[in-house]
Amino acid sequence: MNDETKKQINERYEKQLNKGERFWPDTIFRDLIMSVGIFVLLILLATFIGIPAEPKADPSDTSYIPRPEWYFLFLFKFLALYGQLPLIGKIEWLATVLIPTLALGLLTLLPFIERSPHRHYSKRVLPISIMTVMVVGIILLTMTSEVPTVAEDGSTLLGTLQTISGIVIPVVAYILFFVFKNNTRLMLWTTGLAATAMIILSGTVLALAPEKEAEETVVATTLTDQITAGQDLYSIHCTECHGDDGSIAIIEGVEGLEGEKITPINSRDVLYTITDASMIELIAYGRPNAGMPPFGKTYGGELSKSEIDYIVAFMRYLWDDRFEAPVIKPLFPPLADGEVPSYDVHIQPIVKRYCISCHRPGKDNNNYLMTTYEEILTTGDHAEFNIIAGDENSYLLQTIQEKIILDENGEEIIGVMPPTKALKPDVVDVFLRWIMNGMPQTAADAATLSTTPSP
Amino acid sequence: MWKNIYLWLDERIGFNDLYKNLLDRPEPKTNWWNTLGSASLFLFILQGLTGIFLTVYYTPSPDHAYDSITYIMEGVAFGWLIRGIHHWGATLMVLVVFIHMLRVFYTASFKYPRELTWLIGIGLFLTTLGMGFTGYLLPWNQKAYWATTVGTQIAGTVPFVGEFILKALRGGPELSALTLQRFFAAHIWIIPAVLAALIGIHLYLIIKHGESHSPTKED
Ligand code: HEM
Predict the structure, then answer these.
(1) Do the domain assignments include residue A215?
(2) B157: CA distance to ligand 1 center in Å?
(3) Domain range spanning residue A394?
(4) Ligand 1 atom closest to the CA of B127, numbered from 1
(5) What interhelical angle do B79-106 and B36-57 show, nearest 10?
(6) Rounded to a whole number, what is the distance in Å from the CA of B195 to chain A's nearest CA?
(7) ω into residue B113 within 30 of 0, thus cis?
């Protein structure tokens, strides 16, 4: 740039200054409004959306689908699509290093690459076109970042559409830009068409994308939630050997450990001598020599770090007399006269606490699974007898009232449930009312069945 | 009495010069797009203030980081609000800085005499992303842990030196307590210091050259 152009630029700027405003108060005033607006927006976001709770980091949980921060999502999507390309798709560093570095380098050196002194849009169509296609691409890649490239049924249609929208069209547009370099109109058309095609394709991809199932991870944030979560997990995983209150000293009814003498884990011997850290490690690693299996994911078990933390919190606050338990919500809200319980509010938490430890896949239970509403009603070797609406002789009701089910020959086919310790009367009452009134699923269904006793 | 103090101070500081040089400057006609730079500055200051508050309770160790965050959210009065603002402020800052950069690009404000302002700006953009990247790991939850795992993996694919960069970032082959320490130090000391220095130069250059006018047909 020669001194003549510099002088011209500076003169034009002077002219604009004379027609302009004062920094104080004009410019600053608008800046202030913007900042205050942003501040209010932040307070609203913090208050009404907040920060979703997340479970604690768990390096062993390889099932977790890692995702980067949202502003890097586009790069990840780009890498995933790039990996699908034939041939060059295999050369990873081309996409992870070379292309980003090149893009960033061009952006950095922009003032020295775009050297014409012109500033008006009409004289900068090439750079504006390149940037616009890039920005549209980045936004669309971010928006489609959750859509898988290979569908569950193995179809690669979505992946292909995404690759066309995210890589092929931009590349073609860039080539055309340099072909049409001197024709402003054609460049603008290319930009418009490319952007439109990318938007339509990505829209199609989003519309075709499989509905994402909301992942359900329980994250207990308050102490009482943690203790309750811990108690549920304990009931599912530990009761068969340690009993629902940790008091078992001789294991019964567990294959391979029959009659094994163990230290009751609710005793001071255990609670006072084992620190939280070793307790967590003990549960994660188990006692393979003594017969306790590992529970931590690191060692092939099922429990995440957070879940083991919850169990330890439960053990401490309920059994360790050095800790004072906070008030804990009852397992289910007590029933009034004539009130009908529902699956969602009453049966589900009860089943989780007292039955699921055995009635889940992989356990000895006559194939009777109890993890969902449907399963409870339809599975089991005696599915047709287990639960019969309005029938007191439903097998489930009999077994939980300590009646054994016998076949024609008088042989026992189902023992009492739960096998080790009878349910409390109020829990039995919930099951009774639920089945006698036709097993409503939601609280609303149950409410319509309820009767208020007339005084 | 107040008047005397004012006069004494004015004599040493020179409020009038400050006013003339910083505030009473002529500007070309500006519009709402021109507020994004100062909005970035505002967000930087806000992140600084809320961040300082968070470090009072935060513990950068894998054993305690998660619990200290839970404590900020549950136990500290208005902790949720401060962390909420810091969390969303980070997101918004990346967004606002990016849009600010786009507006500078589209109005070609990076041209003579503002080339250096642009170069410093690129530094600001990268350090802002660096703040986001290092801050994300600190809560030590699943999302954070795995995001950083994949993020650092990318660095590992660089030919020849990838392995070295990966280990330097993580402080070892795996994410560990060392990684958290490193990211924490970078997030609260190293990167903010660089960012603040760059912002200083950026602002000096903007005052020196004045803000560019929106391009006209003649330009
Ligand atoms: C922490 C981040 C940043 C802060 C706090 C910041 C702050 C500011 C402020 C206050 C202005 C004047 C008002 C305005 O034009 O909006 C400005 C202008 C400018 N910024 Fe930034 N900025 C940041 C990032 C960037 C980035 C990422 C770039 C580009 C790579 C950039 C390039 C420029 C340029 C060239 C100007 C002069 C524009 C003109 O004179 O019209 N800045 N910046």
Answers:
(1) no
(2) 32
(3) 343-449
(4) 1
(5) 150
(6) 17
(7) yes
What ipTM describes this predicted complex?
Answer: 0.93
Residues of chain B positioned with their CB less than 8 A from the CB of A57: 62, 66, 140-142, 144-145
Mean pLDDT for the stretch of residues A403-432: 85
Q: Tell whether A233 and A311 lie within a shared domain.
A: yes
Mean pLDDT of A362-368: 84
Report yes or no on A62 lying in a domain. no
Together in a domain, A357 and A405:
yes
CB distance A13–B212 less than 8 Å? yes
pLDDT grade for B118, boundaries at 50, 70 and 90: very high
SS3 of residue A303 by DSSP: strand
**Which phi and psi angles does A296 have, rounded to 5°?**
-70, 145
The tally of domains found in chain A comes to 4
**Candidates B66, B85, B174; nearest CB to A42:** B85
Comparing CB atoms, the residue among A19, A76, A92 nearest residue B157 is: A92
Chain B nearest-CA distance from A57, in A, is 4
Helix (H) or strand (E) holding A34: helix A28-44
Q: Establish if A312 belongs to a structural domain.
A: yes
Q: Are residue A76 and residue A155 in the same domain, yes or no?
A: yes
Mean per-residue pLDDT of chain B: 92
Per 3-state DSSP, chain B is made up of helix, strand and coil in percentages (nearest 5) of 75, 0, 25
Helix (H, G, I), strand (E, B) or coil at B116: helix
**Strand, coil or helix: A405:** strand
Nearest alpha carbon to residue B42 among A299, A91, A38, A71: A38
β partners of residue A261: A250
Residue of B nearest to A67 (CA): B147
Check residue B194 and give its pLDDT: 97
Do residues A191 and A104 share a domain?
A: yes
* Residues A99, A138: Cα–Cα separation, whole Å: 14
Mutation target vs B (from A38, A67, A78; most B CBs, 10 A cutoff) = A38
CA distances from B204 to A13, A172, B179, B209 (A): 19, 42, 35, 9
φ, ψ of residue A250 to 5 degrees: the values are -130, 120
Measured between CB atoms, which of A5, A56, A110 is closest to B110? A110
Residue of A nearest to B157 (CA): A93
Domain co-membership, A315 together with A355: no
> Is the CA virtual torsion A24, A25, A27, A32 positive or negative?
positive
CATH code for the domain of A286: 1.10.760.10
Name the CA dihedral angle for A379, A381, A386, A389, rounded to a multiple of 10 degrees: 60
Q: Which of A:10-49 have CB within 8 Å of B?
A: 12-13, 16-24, 26-28, 30-31, 33-35, 38-39, 41-43, 45-47, 49
> Three-state DSSP class for A365?
coil
Q: Are residues A171 and A277 in the same domain?
A: no
Q: Which token pair is A283? A: 């549960």
| Same domain, residue pair A300 and A271 | yes
Q: Is the peptide bond before A418 cis (omega within 30 degrees of 0)?
A: yes
pLDDT tens readout for residues A167-208: 999 999 999 998 988 888 999 999 999 999 999 999 999 988
Half-sphere exposure (Cβ direction) of A74: Cα atoms closer than 13 Å: 15
Beta carbons of A80 and A318 less than 8 angstroms apart: no
Q: Are residues A78 and A202 in the same domain?
A: yes
